[in-house]
Amino acid sequence: MRKNLFLLLLLFLAGCAGNTMVLNGEKIDILSPEEELELISTARATLAKSKRLTPNEQRIVKAQKPVFKIRYTSSRTGDATCTWKLPGKSVTLLIRGTFFEGSAQWVMKLNNDQPGALYFKAKDPLRVDKR
C-alpha cells in the first residue's frame, strides 16, 4: 500500500514538474529555461546583424542581460520581448507567434529615452534695439 502511494506521489510530482501552465482553464506547454536562453541568444544574434545599431551598442547587447518577458496565448505561442538599455535609448526585439518556428515574426524597435527637446529662442530682455 505504501509503495503504491509513493509511486502515485512520484507520478503526480513528475506531471507537475513539466514546463506547463494553466491559461484560461487549459493546460499549455511553455518554454523551458534553456529554451528561453536560446531565444535570447537568437535575439542577440539578430541584433548583431542590424545596421541600425553602432558597433558599441552591439557590444552592449552582447554583454548586457536583457529584460525578458513572455505573454503566452497558447502552447509555446505568444509574445516575447527582449529589451536592452543603451546610452540614450533602448532597443526591443519582439517575437510574436509560435516560438522556434519559421512563422514567428521578429520586430525591432528603437526608443529614444529623451524625447526631442523643443528649442525656443527667447529675445534677450537686456538687449536694446537701436533703430
Contiguous runs where pLDDT drops below 50 for at least 5 residues: 4-16
Distance between the termini: 109 Å
- Helical element count? 3
What structural class should be given to the helix and strand makeup? alpha+beta
Portion in beta strands = 25-35%
Q: In percent, how helical is the residue content?
A: 25-40%
Please state the average pLDDT score: 81
* Large-scale geometry: elongated
Main-sheet strand order equals 3-4-5-6
H/E topology pattern: HEEHHEEEE
Number of strands: 6
How many whole angstroms does the radius of gyration measure? Answer: 25 Å
Main sheet overview = 4 strands, antiparallel
Task: Describe what this molecule looks like in 3D.
The chain is of the alpha+beta class and 131 residues long. The protein has a domain at 30-112. It is built from 3 helices and 6 strands. The protein has helices at 2-16, 33-48, 55-63, and strands spanning 20-23, 26-29, 67-74, 77-86, 89-98, 105-112. A 4-stranded antiparallel sheet has the order 3-4-5-6, covered by helices on one side. β5 and β6 form a beta hairpin. The longest helix is centred in the first third of the chain and has 16 residues, at 33-48.
